[in-house]
């Protein structure tokens, strides 16, 4: 089964970005940083989600991100599926922090249960076939709307959603151009998917 080992974000200032992610989310080697000035405008076509255990954890992580310099895109709020909010990091990437729980079960922590890379694609069914052909295993599939792949013991899950719907969920216009400023590292090898998302062979973790 092919999995994601890490994601690499292209950022203008790796030192500043590393400080943000360490301060805001306490993320480890699953998020890597690479210096790049490649142009990108508008929605980059993906979001990163941090799934946590309870609403208090959402509040703690979103608050820490805002204090560290993130911009609020969707304020933390209850919904029919749970509780969550969306922020844009100083480097431009969009992060959603959410839980399916509607009540707290204990004191707030900054623990993260799952990290999900959600790609906004033009044709969910076609992208699903592409990724299955590259060794990924489908865990959940809802027609041409949403697909989630098995992650095994790896730290990052991959899911597919319609591009416009993902932008709406993130609270931003769907239009965008230029680089995704994201590279996926995993066991599938090096390739580019139908929507321009690049994969590279997984490499040992290193400090940014």
UniProtKB/TrEMBL annotation:
SUPFAM superfamilies: Glyoxalase/Bleomycin resistance protein/Dihydroxybiphenyl dioxygenase (SSF54593). This is Putative glyoxalase superfamily protein PhnB. It comes from Nocardiopsis aegyptia.
């Amino acid at each position: 089964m092919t999995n994601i080992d890490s994601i690499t974000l292209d950022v203008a200032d790796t030192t500043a970005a590393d400080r943000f992610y360490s301060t805001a989310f306490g993320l480890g080697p699953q998020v890597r940083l690479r210096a790049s000035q490649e142009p990108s405008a508008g929605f980059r076509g993906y979001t990163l989600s941090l799934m946590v255990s309870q609403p208090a954890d959402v509040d703690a992580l979103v608050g820490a991100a805002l204090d560290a310099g993130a911009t609020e895109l969707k304020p933390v709020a209850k919904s029919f599926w749970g509780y969550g909010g969306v922020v844009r990091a100083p480097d431009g990437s969009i992060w959603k922090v959410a839980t399916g729980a509607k009540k707290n079960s204990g004191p707030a922590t900054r623990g993260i249960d799952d990290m999900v890379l959600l790609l906004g694609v033009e044709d969910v069914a076609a992208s699903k076939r592409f990724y299955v052909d590259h060794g990924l295993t489908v865990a959940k599939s809802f027609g041409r709307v949403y697909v989630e792949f098995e992650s095994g013991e790896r730290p990052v899950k991959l899911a597919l959603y319609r591009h416009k719907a993902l932008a709406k969920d993130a609270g931003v216009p769907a239009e965008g151009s230029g680089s995704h400023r994201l590279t996926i590292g995993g066991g599938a090898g090096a390739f580019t998917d139908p929507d321009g998302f690049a994969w590279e062979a997984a490499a040992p973790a290193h400090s940014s």
